[in-house]
């Protein structure tokens, strides 16, 4: 497990990351969301040791992270980084070797991944000669070599076509299945919702929400929608509830006092037909908008 | 991908990171066409220059010397004595009737020069249409001096030998006659040029490869995997190795080529200075390479390099022109001042007259300077490299948190 504790970074007078804490549990995908400039990249760079930490610490398996730990991490920087004018096989082997892989093992591993991503025929091509999507695939390979102990990916899905997104997702899932913690940032909330076990929301350098997707959706004041056979105007008079919306036979309420929703259902059935009574969980995008507002 | 959950691998390399970086620098450069073509072109230039020199060697200079009757005797003496002074000059004498005929012959190009008693009655005068008769002038001067000296000696009741007794000076290497000085001059120029050329080309290359890494952000991947000082060390070492290999190729081609010219007798005497030059080249190059790496790390895009490397390109020019033009006391002082000493001291060694301890002290100072630039360069490089968004000033880099 990767733990981020009270991580803080200032640039001059501006605090880019302000006492941010969260966890990236083993075998889980943690989505990192927030507006541009919220501090996601800065946090990830601090985790990877690319940027100095002003305050706070990063723990890996319970103890402060070391350079050797980081060497076993897979990292994809925000702005993609590889050599444009070098054959892809050569530079991937180089990156793998820098991370401590043996030359033979590195070659075999790179070759296998290139084939898997449909680049087996292009090992001698310079990176800049590949399409953007293929460059992205090469970048992914660079970050998962050698089998990483943890994955820190900054916007790994940006610029990927749907097919590439799927193969990327498969690849990440393989790693989480092996118990690897994965932290990735993204602007694509639907993707985050589909993929993530957990979510961390940053706004202006502060953590404003964190937890599993279900936790986040359950957090906050519970809301219910009630659809009746007749007019729902009477709902306004019920105590312990706030009516958010009332439209003919349909009412949307927020529960202020525990149990108030039970009285509401009882009263509704007493008055006539109840077509629908459901808990309304906010979409992730709503939570995000509220959290970052 | 396998489902193996263990994170420890058996096939880990014990190869230090800097060595991996060094190897990548060397391999990616040595397989680069423009590098190979550039090196080949330089070799062709060296061979061409030596070939031209050899051809000039063989060539003899045929000159026609006009003389009025009162100067025929002297002109003939010049003709006979020419080969002793300069074996590449052959003089033919044409007898002319008077001064007017001589001037006409000069204008008509029938003769290259006209020898006659000086108009003020003291000594001799060589008149030619242009000043392009250097070899003839040298020969004439020497012979006339000999002749007049002999006559004057005889008049004084003695002989030239008697006058010159005990005045002979044996000179040690490359100082003394014009040819030796010229060889020292040319080889000295070659040293300065080779250093300038290598430091500039490899320096620029090093700086732009630093920018390439910074701009493409691969540096973040590298920084997460290995300490940045290993990256810098690998880059500097790789480029130094390449520069030295290239230098050795040029030197070998140059020296072997020289052995085919009439200057081959100077080869044994050149080996010492050449060895010193390689030492100075190495220390000087390492010192500058670190500064080039810093220049690269301060820029954030290739377009910035022009600005961040200006102080360095100025320094290179100072070294180049200083190396070529300094002489006397200034040269002696400069030969101890790093990094200019990297080119000036080898040139002084070449010219001769250097105490044995002087190169050692200069090399020691240069090595110390290199150590300082490596130390300072490493700090600046490390701090500037991961700063994004525009150019980084030296002050920012120095005070930046890591």
Question: Secondary structure elements and their pairing?
Answer:
The complex is a heterodimer of chains A (293) and B (402).
Chain A: E1 2-11, E2 14-24, E3 29-34, H1 40-47, E4 55-60, E5 63-64, H2 67-71, E6 73-76, H3 88-98, H4 103-116, H5 132-143, E7 150-153, H6 162-177, E8 182-185, H7 189-195, E9 198-203, E10 206-212, H8 213-218, E11 223-228, E12 241-247, E13 250-255, H9 260-271, E14 274-280, H10 284-292
Parallel strand pairs in A: 3-8, 3-9, 6-7, 7-8
Antiparallel strand pairs in A: 1-2, 1-4, 4-5, 9-10, 11-13, 11-14, 12-13
Chain B: H1 17-30, H2 33-58, E1 61-67, H3 72-85, E2 89-95, H4 99-107, E3 113-117, E4 124-128, H5 134-155, H6 160-164, H7 178-216, H8 218-225, H9 228-258, H10 267-298, H11 305-308, H12 310-325, H13 328-334, H14 341-351, H15 357-385, H16 394-399
Parallel strand pairs in B: 1-2, 1-3
Antiparallel strand pairs in B: 3-4
């Amino acid at each position: 497990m990767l733990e981020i504790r009270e991580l803080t970074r200032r640039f001059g007078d501006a605090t880019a990351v302000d006492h941010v804490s969260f966890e990236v549990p083993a075998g889980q995908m943690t989505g990192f969301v927030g507006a541009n400039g919220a501090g996601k990249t800065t946090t990830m760079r601090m985790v990877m040791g690319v940027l100095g930490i002003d305050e706070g610490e990063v723990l890996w398996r319970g103890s402060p992270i070391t350079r050797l730990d980081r060497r076993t991490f897979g990292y994809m920087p925000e702005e993609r980084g590889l050599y444009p004018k070098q054959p892809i096989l050569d530079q991937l082997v180089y990156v793998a070797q820098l991370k401590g892989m043996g030359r033979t093992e590195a070659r075999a591993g790179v070759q296998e991944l290139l084939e898997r991503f449909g680049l087996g025929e292009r090992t001698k091509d310079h990176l800049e000669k590949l399409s953007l999507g293929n460059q992205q695939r090469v970048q992914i390979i660079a970050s998962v070599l050698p089998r990483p102990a943890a994955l820190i990916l900054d916007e790994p899905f940006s610029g990927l076509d749907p097919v590439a997104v799927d193969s990327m997702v498969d690849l990440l899932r393989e790693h989480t299945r092996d118990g690897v913690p994965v932290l990735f940032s993204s602007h694509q909330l639907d993707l985050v919702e589909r993929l993530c076990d957990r979510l961390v929301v940053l706004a202006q350098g502060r953590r404003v929400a964190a937890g599993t997707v279900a936790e986040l959706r359950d957090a906050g004041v519970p809301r219910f929608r009630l659809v009746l056979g007749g007019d729902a105007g009477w709902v306004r008079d019920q105590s312990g509830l706030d009516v958010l919306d009332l439209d003919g036979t349909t009412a949307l309420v927020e529960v202020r006092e525990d149990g108030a929703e039970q009285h509401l259902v009882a009263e509704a059935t007493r008055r006539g037909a109840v077509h629908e009574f459901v808990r309304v969980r906010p979409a992730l995008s709503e939570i995000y908008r509220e959290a970052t507002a | 991908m396998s489902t193996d959950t263990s994170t420890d691998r058996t096939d880990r390399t014990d190869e230090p990171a800097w060595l991996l970086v060094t190897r990548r620098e060397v391999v990616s450069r040595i397989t680069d066409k423009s590098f190979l073509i550039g090196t080949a072109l330089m070799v062709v230039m060296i061979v061409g220059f030596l070939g031209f020199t050899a051809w000039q060697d063989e060539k003899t200079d045929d000159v026609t010397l006009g003389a009025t009757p009162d100067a025929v005797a002297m002109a003939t003496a010049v003709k006979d004595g020419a080969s002793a002074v300069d074996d590449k000059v052959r003089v033919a004498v044409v007898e002319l009737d008077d001064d007017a005929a001589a001037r006409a012959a000069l204008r008509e190009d029938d003769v290259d020069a006209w020898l006659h008693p000086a108009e003020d009655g003291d000594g001799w005068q060589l008149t030619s249409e242009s000043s392009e008769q250097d070899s003839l002038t040298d020969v004439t001067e020497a012979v006339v001096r000999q002749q007049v000296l002999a006559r004057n000696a005889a008049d004084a009741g003695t002989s030239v030998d008697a006058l010159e007794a005990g005045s002979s000076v044996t000179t040690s290497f490359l100082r003394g006659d014009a040819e030796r000085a010229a060889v020292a001059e040319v080889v000295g120029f070659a040293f300065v040029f080779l250093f300038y050329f290598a430091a500039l080309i490899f320096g620029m290359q090093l700086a732009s490869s630093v920018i390439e890494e910074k701009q493409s952000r691969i540096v973040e991947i590298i920084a997460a995997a290995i300490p940045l000082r290993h990256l810098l060390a690998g880059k500097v070492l790789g480029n130094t190795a390449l520069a030295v290999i290239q230098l050795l190729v040029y030197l070998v081609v140059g020296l072997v080529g020289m052995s085919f010219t009439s200057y081959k007798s100077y080869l044994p005497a050149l080996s010492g200075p050449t060895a010193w030059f390689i030492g100075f080249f190495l220390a000087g190059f390492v010192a500058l390479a670190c500064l080039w790496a810093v220049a690269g790390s301060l820029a954030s895009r290739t377009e910035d390099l022009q600005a961040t490397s200006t102080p360095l390109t100025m320094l290179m020019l100072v070294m180049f022109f200083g190396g070529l033009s300094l002489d006397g006391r200034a040269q002696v002082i400069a030969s101890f001042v790093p990094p200019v000493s990297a080119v000036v001291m080898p040139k002084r060694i070449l010219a001769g007259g250097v105490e044995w301890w002087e190169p050692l002290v200069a090399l020691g100072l240069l090595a110390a300077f290199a150590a300082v630039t490596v130390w300072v360069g490493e700090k600046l490089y490390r701090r500037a490299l991961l700063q994004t968004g525009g150019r980084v000033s030296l002050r920012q880099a120095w005070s930046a948190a890591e």
